[in-house]
Design a protein that fits this description.
Shape: elongated
Structural class: mainly alpha
Strand content: under 5%
Number of strands: 0
Number of helices: 4
Number of domains: 1
């Protein structure tokens, strides 16, 4: 006898192993983001107002990444809609942090920032 058709709620769920891999990847990226911010913040060079241009998107991006991790750790993230929402939140945070890092590198390369990332 063939298996019955999958129930609708089963089709709207993701495999826990897949979610666990996503949690691992998100955690690693958050670690890199926090490490960059920590290293940059502890740089002995002085800070100036121009350094807010990269710091704001970096911090906002990290906050979105952390919210996404918290959402992924919830059992509700096994529902496809919740998982996709957390994934999109994480990607938005990743893009924001990347924009902030790019701005920091540009300011450093242009010699505008007192924080030095290059060299």
């Amino acid at each position: 006898m063939p298996d019955p058709a999958p129930r609708r709620e089963d089709q709207d769920r993701i495999d826990p192993a897949f979610r666990n891999g996503s949690i691992t990847a998100v955690g690693i990226i958050i670690g890199f983001s926090l490490s960059f911010l920590s290293r940059w913040a502890t740089n002995p060079a002085g800070w100036s107002a121009v350094d807010l241009f990269p710091v704001v998107p970096i911090v906002a991006g990290i906050m979105l990444q952390l919210k996404a991790l918290a959402d992924l750790l919830s059992i509700a993230s096994l529902q496809l809609a919740n998982y996709n929402r957390a994934k999109n939140l994480f990607l938005a945070g990743l893009v924001l942090a990347a924009i902030g890092i790019a701005v920091a590198i540009i300011l450093d390369a242009a010699g505008i920032s007192q924080q030095h990332l290059i060299g």
